[in-house]
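Q: what sequence does this backbone want?
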């Protein structure tokens, strides 16, 4: 057994650095917390190359006294905790005294600081945790920290860093969280020489919310104010039920000014929205909880983002009732504006008086009702016959028509010469039973048409396959489930799930080549930093799916074109869903990312539950399921449920 020995101080420092400093965003978070604890009212954060080569955090706080500058970079050196009793009621953001030591251990640090009452400040340079130089310098009151070449002395760490855009987005998110936590502090964020955030620092949470999250989200928020037992107060903003998002990335919880991640608070928030939000949507919030310092323990996680409450029930009840009271007090009905312009963002130049020529595609469709769609064949008789053969070979509608989820009802198609049920044809077909004409409109068989399966040609000497049991579409339940009867069995087919799988298989096999539409008014929206970085990293992949996106500055994304089956007012929601897929598949291979995107696009293009479809469309979906080609949707849900006659008779006590 190896001997136990004390680690070298340098190795111990690197281990401690690994607990506190994981990426550039960790450095910025720790430096921002120090600036806030120092009483700063204005903080500037500047990064280059995602923060890997350069980070600068400057504040106008109290500064560091000259005698304490070197001491500040020693491990467990802090001015915020004196005795063990102070740990029971922590009121500052930092308290362990590990951050500066951990940062200096894995980077090159330059400090320029001047405290009040001193004419000159101190310039200190450290490399790998060791002091290189110290000298007096003229500087304004406050502290400026410059961190260069992060992880330069730990190359193994560098391979775990993501691209500069992703690391920069994580830093931006850290600054945004601190800006929402401290609306009385003005935050400025610069990335590669470009300003991306500036908050007024006027002490109004609404102003910080507007600057950080953008105009659209700010206007969709409700004020919340409430209190509970044990001096618990809740204040902030929550989103209107109609403005819920597709992910939880817009939920910000702060306890005594500290950003935290808490399943307890998340559950309380979403419980308050019970039966008021759409399924699959999540409310956004910026909520500040204030409680007694000794009622919460913040010393449970190295990153200090997880806390423990003495009484979780009181915290849950306080937040739940505060949010529920705000939602119950909001009685404004949803507004239907048929001529509303495209949603303006902070950088939009769209005027309220949009002319007809600048109206978005979605607004045009709402203002000018489309004529009922009619599927017809054009050209000569030979061309029309060739077109029908092409459709049957593809298993239904051609690709661009499958990508259109809106169908007229009833769907009118060009009459075919033989209205009888379609059966598998071969070069030398075996004898088959002729179907009387009166059975043609309702009877269907499981076998595909001749053009559908040209490869299933039996060998001349082979025995013909047994005739599949015919099936019949008996109707539709709740405009969601197709009812199919086959012998003594009944099948309930989820038309959305089945059509989604059909789309997915076709897109994956043939390559996705969508029909696109150029938007009359480009869509501008501001996603969460991580989502925005994911979209910008995969612009070429999005282009393949019909979206033409570009960076619009300030965290905003501009969309100039989209697939033809996505309305302009659905572009933002669709791209946010794609961003969520990209983030969830960030650790998988490129094929996994592509499959995630294909599944989302197939879902968007599929017919929806509750949508009225014609008999031809229902039969097309049922044919794929009854042929065994479709069993599960891309997300793993079954597409059909079987019920036998015996099971049904047992329910009615007939058996």
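A:
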């Amino acid at each position: 057994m190896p001997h136990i020995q004390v680690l070298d101080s340098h190795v111990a420092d690197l281990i401690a650095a690994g607990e506190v400093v994981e990426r550039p965003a960790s450095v910025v978070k720790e430096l921002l917390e120090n600036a806030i604890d120092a009483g700063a009212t204005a903080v500037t954060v500047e990064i280059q190359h995602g923060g890997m080569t350069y980070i600068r955090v400057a504040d106008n706080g109290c500064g560091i006294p000259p005698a304490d500058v070197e001491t500040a970079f020693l491990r467990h050196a802090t001015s915020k905790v004196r005795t063990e009793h102070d740990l029971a009621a922590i009121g500052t953001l930092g308290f362990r005294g590990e951050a500066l030591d951990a940062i200096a251990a894995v980077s090159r640090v330059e400090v320029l600081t001047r405290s009040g009452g001193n004419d000159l400040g101190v310039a200190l340079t450290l490399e790998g945790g060791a002091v290189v130089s110290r000298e007096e310098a003229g500087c304004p009151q406050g502290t400026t920290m410059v961190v260069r070449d992060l992880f330069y002395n730990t190359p193994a760490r560098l391979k775990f860093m993501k691209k500069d855009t992703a690391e920069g987005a994580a830093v931006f998110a850290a600054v945004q969280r601190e800006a929402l936590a401290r609306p009385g502090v003005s935050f400025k964020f610069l990335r590669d020489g470009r300003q991306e955030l500036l908050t007024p620092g006027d002490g109004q949470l609404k102003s910080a919310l507007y600057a950080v999250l953008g105009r659209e989200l700010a206007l969709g928020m409700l004020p919340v104010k409430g209190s509970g037992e044990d001096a618990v107060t809740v204040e902030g903003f929550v989103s209107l039920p109609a403005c819920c998002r597709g992910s939880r990335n817009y939920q910000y919880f702060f306890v005594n000014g500290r950003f935290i991640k808490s399943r307890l608070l998340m559950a309380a928030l979403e419980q308050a929205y019970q039966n008021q939000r759409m399924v699959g949507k999540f409310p956004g919030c910026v909520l500040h909880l204030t409680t007694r310092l000794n009622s919460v323990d913040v010393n449970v996680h190295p990153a200090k983002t997880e806390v423990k409450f003495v009484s979780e029930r009181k915290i849950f009840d306080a937040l739940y009732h505060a949010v529920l009271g705000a939602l119950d007090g909001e009685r404004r009905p949803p507004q239907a504006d048929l001529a509303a312009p495209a949603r303006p963002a902070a950088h939009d130049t769209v005027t309220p008086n949009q002319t007809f020529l600048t109206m978005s595609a979605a607004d045009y469709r709402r203002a000018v009702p489309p004529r009922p769609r009619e599927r017809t064949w054009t050209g000569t008789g030979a061309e029309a016959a060739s077109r029908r053969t092409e459709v049957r070979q593809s298993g239904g509608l051609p690709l661009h028509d499958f990508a259109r989820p809106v169908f007229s009802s009833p769907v009118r198609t060009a009459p075919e010469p033989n209205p009888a049920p379609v059966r598998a044809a071969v070069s030398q077909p075996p004898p088959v039973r002729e179907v009387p004409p009166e059975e043609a409109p309702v009877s269907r068989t499981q076998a595909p048409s001749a053009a559908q399966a040209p490869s299933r040609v039996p060998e001349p000497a082979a025995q013909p396959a047994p005739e599949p049991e015919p099936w019949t579409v008996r109707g539709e339940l709740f405009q969601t489930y197709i009812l199919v009867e086959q012998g003594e069995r009944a099948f309930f087919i989820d038309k959305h799930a089945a059509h989604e799988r059909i789309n997915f298989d076709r897109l994956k096999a043939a390559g996705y080549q969508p029909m696109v539409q150029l938007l009359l008014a480009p869509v501008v929206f501001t996603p969460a930093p991580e989502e925005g970085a994911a979209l910008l990293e995969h612009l070429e992949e999005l282009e393949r799916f019909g979206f033409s996106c570009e960076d619009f500055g300030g965290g905003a994304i501009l969309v100039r074109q989209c697939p033809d089956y996505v309305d302009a007012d659905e572009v933002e929601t669709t791209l946010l869903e794609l961003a969520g897929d990209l983030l969830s598949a960030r650790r998988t291979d490129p094929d996994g990312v592509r499959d995630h995107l294909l599944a989302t696009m197939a879902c968007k293009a599929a017919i929806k539950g509750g949508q009225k479809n014609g008999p031809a469309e229902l039969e097309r979906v049922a044919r794929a399921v009854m042929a065994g080609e479709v069993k599960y949707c891309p997300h793993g849900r079954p597409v059909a449920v079987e019920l036998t006659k015996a099971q049904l008779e047992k329910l009615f006590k007939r058996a």
